[in-house]
Write a structure and sequence with these properties.
heterodimer, A: mainly beta, 11 strands, B: 115 residues, seven-stranded mixed beta sheet, globular
Chain lengths: 111, 115
Amino acid sequence: SQQGEEDPQALSIQEGENATMNCSYKTSINNLQWYRQNSGRGLVHLILIRSNEREKHSGRLRVTLDTSKKSSSLLITASRAADTASYFCATDPSNTGKLIFGQGTTLQVKP
Amino acid sequence: NAGVTQTPKFQVLKTGQSMTLQCAQDMNHEYMSWYRQDPGMGLRLIHYSVGAGITDQGEVPNGYNVSRSTTEDFPLRLLSAAPSQTSVYFCASSTTSGPLTYEQYFGPGTRLTVT
C-alpha cells in the first residue's frame, strides 16, 4: 500500500517558474523525506522534515509539513531545465527505517 | 567514497533461472534495503536489514531472499525468476539512531528483464 500520494502526477512548467508538488499520507509520522530521481538513475535525497517542524529550506527548495492535515508540499523556486525529474515523498510510519514511497510527481521544466 | 554500488546494471533472465543482485556500501551504514520500481509507480520495499546478521521482510518479499553477513554487503537473490519480477531494483543504505530515520543513499539500480 502507498503511504504517500503525490499530486499532481505530472507537471510541466517554463524555466524560471515555480513548481509545487504535494504529498498526503495516512498515518502519523516522525519525519517525511523528499527525493529526486532523474531519468534512469537512482534516487537522491533532497530534504528531511521532522514532525515538529513546519517549514524547511534548502537552496531553492522549500518544504512544508502540516501534520494536522497529514500533508506536505515541496516548492522549487526559479526552476531550471536541470530540475526536470520525478519527485517522491517518503515516510517511515512504523519508525523502523522502512520507507514507504509515494508514486511520484514527474516534473518537466521547459527551457 | 564510492557510496552504494550495484552490479550488474542490466540483466536478462529466463523464467526459472536464479541470480544474485549485488549491493555494497562503503559508508559503514547499519541500515540497508532493497526496493523495486515498476513503471509509473514509486518504490516498494522488498527486504531490509538493520545490521549484520539481521534481515526482515518489506512490502513485497515473495520470490526474494537476502542475507547480511557483513556491514558492507547486502545481496538480493532471486531463486526462480518469474516475468512478474521484471523491474528496476534499487539498493539503499542509511545510518540510524534508534527510531530515527535518516536520509537513504541509493545505488544506480539494476534493470532486470525476465522472459
